[in-house]
Design goal:
By secondary structure, the protein is α/β, with parallel strands linked by helices. It contains 14 helices and 13 strands. It is 43% helix and 18% strand. A seven-stranded mixed beta sheet has the order 3-9-8-7-6-4-5, sandwiched between helices. It has a three-stranded mixed beta sheet with strand order 1-2-11. α7 links the parallel β6 (139-145) and β7.
Length: 355
C-alpha cells in the first residue's frame, strides 16, 4: 500500500480500499471487458437509455448478497443519501440524526424540508425522549451511520431497532464503511449486530470503499425501490454509472464473498496496531474497524505531526474541524488487507519517534 506524492513513495495509511480490491487484477480485467462491451459511459440517465444489463445484474447480485428484496444503484454515496432522505420526507415529517453522521446524511435531512433534530452521538436515551414527544401519527425517520467514518465506532443497531419498533419510526442506516468489512460474511453492521435485515427500512452502501470501485446503492423492499425510482431526484436526473464500473463491481462482489481471508487479515492488522499503540500509551477510540483515529486535539499540532510522519515515509492525513468537532483534530489511520504485519510495525515505530 504505497502512494506516490511528488515523486516519493510513501506507506499509505489514509485510504478506504479496505480489502485491497481497487487494483485487483480480476477487477481490472472486468472493467476492461466492460469497456469493450459497453463503451466508456452509460450515455444517459437510468430512466432513459442509461440502464444496462450490467446495472441490472449488479443490483440483483447485491440484493442476494445483502438478503433484501431489491437494490437501486446511485452514482455515488452522497447522491444516494440526499436522494433517499429528500424523497422519503417532507414538511410534515421529522428526522432524527446522530450528531456524528456523515455530511451527506445531514445535508439530506436539511434539504428534505422535514423538521430536523440531531441527538448526541449514540445517545439512545435522549433520542427516545425526543421521539416520545412527537405525535403518534407523525412520520419519523431515524438516520445513522453503521460505522462512523471519523471515529470508526459502530452504531448501537440493536438498540435503534428496538427504539424504532416502540415508537413507530423508520430506520435508515448508511453502512458505507461496514459492508464488505465487518460481519462473518462481510454483510456489514446488520450481520455484525445479528439484527434481522427486515428491521432496517433503508440500507445504503457504497462501492468505492471495501469493493474498491465506484458508486453506491440503496437496499430495501420492492416498494421502497419503486418509490425511489419515481421520487429520488438524484437518481432520476443524472447520468447513470458507467456499465463498465458495474461489471468491475460485480467481480469485486464475488471476491468479497469468496475471499474471506481479506477480512480476517484486515482485522488481525487492526488488532496488532491497537495492541502496539496501547503499549506505547496512545489513547485510541473504541473502534473495532480499520478506522483507527489518534485524537490530538489541537489542529496545528495535528498538522505538524502529520508532516513529521510524511518526512519519515508514512502518509496519514490530518483531519481537522469542521470535519470533526472542535478540539478533536486527529490523525485518521486506516488499514487495508494489502498492508503487511511489517508495515504496522513500521507505522508504530515511526509514531513512537514522532510523538
Amino acid at each position: 500500500m504505497r502512494v506516490n506524492i511528488d515523486g516519493r513513495k510513501l506507506l499509505n495509511f489514509s485510504g478506504n480500499d479496505y480489502l485491497g480490491l481497487a487494483n485487483h487484477p480480476n477487477v481490472v480485467c472486468a472493467l476492461k471487458r466492460g469497456v469493450d462491451r459497453f463503451g466508456v459511459g452509460s450515455g444517459s440517465a437510468h430512466l432513459i437509455v442509461g440502464h444496462s444489463s450490467a446495472h441490472h445484474d449488479l443490483e440483483d447480485e447485491l440484493a442476494e448478497f445483502i438478503g433484501c428484496q431489491r437494490v437501486l444503484l446511485f452514482s455515488n454515496g452522497y447522491m444516494a443519501n440526499i436522494g433517499v432522505v429528500s424523497a422519503l420526507l417532507g414538511k410534515s415529517s421529522i428526522v432524527f440524526e446522530d450528531r456524528l453522521n456523515h455530511a451527506s446524511l445531514i445535508d439530506g435531512g436539511l434539504l428534505s424540508g422535514a423538521k430536523f433534530r440531531r441527538f448526541p452521538h449514540t445517545d439512545l436515551g435522549l433520542l427516545e425522549k425526543h421521539l416520545q414527544r412527537q405525535a403518534e401519527d407523525k412520520q419519523k425517520l431515524i438516520v445513522t451511520d453503521g460505522v462512523f467514518s471519523m471515529d470508526g465506532d459502530l452504531a448501537p443497531l440493536n438498540g435503534l431497532v428496538r427504539l424504532k419498533k416502540r415508537t413507530g419510526s423508520w430506520l435508515m442506516v448508511d453502512d458505507a464503511h461496514g459492508l464488505g468489512v465487518i460481519g462473518q460474511n462481510g454483510r456489514g453492521i446488520v450481520e455484525q449486530s445479528n439484527v434481522d435485515g427486515n428491521d432496517i427500512d433503508v440500507l445504503v452502501g457504497t462501492l468505492g470503499k471495501a469493493f474498491g470501485t465506484f458508486g453506491a446503492f440503496v437496499a430495501g423492499t420492492e416498494e421502497l425501490v419503486e418509490f425511489l425510482i419515481q421520487k429520488a431526484r438524484t437518481y432520476i436526473y443524472t447520468t447513470a454509472l458507467p456499465p463498465s464500473i458495474a461489471e468491475a463491481s460485480r467481480e469485486s462482489l464475488r471476491l468479497v464473498q469468496n475471499e474471506s481471508w481479506r477480512r480476517e487479515k484486515l482485522l488481525d492488522l487492526v488488532s496488532q496496531f491497537r495492541t502496539g499503540a496501547e503499549s506505547m500509551g496512545l489513547q485510541l477510540l473504541q473502534s473495532p474497524t480499520p478506522i483507527q483515529p489518534i485524537v490530538i486535539g489541537d489542529s496545528q499540532a495535528t498538522v505538524e505531526l502529520s508532516n513529521r510522519l510524511t518526512a519519515k515515509g508514512i502518509f496519514v492525513i490530518p483531519v481537522r474541524p469542521p470535519t470533526v468537532p472542535k478540539g478533536s483534530a486527529r490523525l485518521r489511520i486506516t488499514f487495508s488487507a494489502m498492508h503487511e504485519s511489517a508495515d504496522i510495525e513500521r507505522l508504530l515505530n515511526v509514531l513512537h519517534d514522532c510523538l
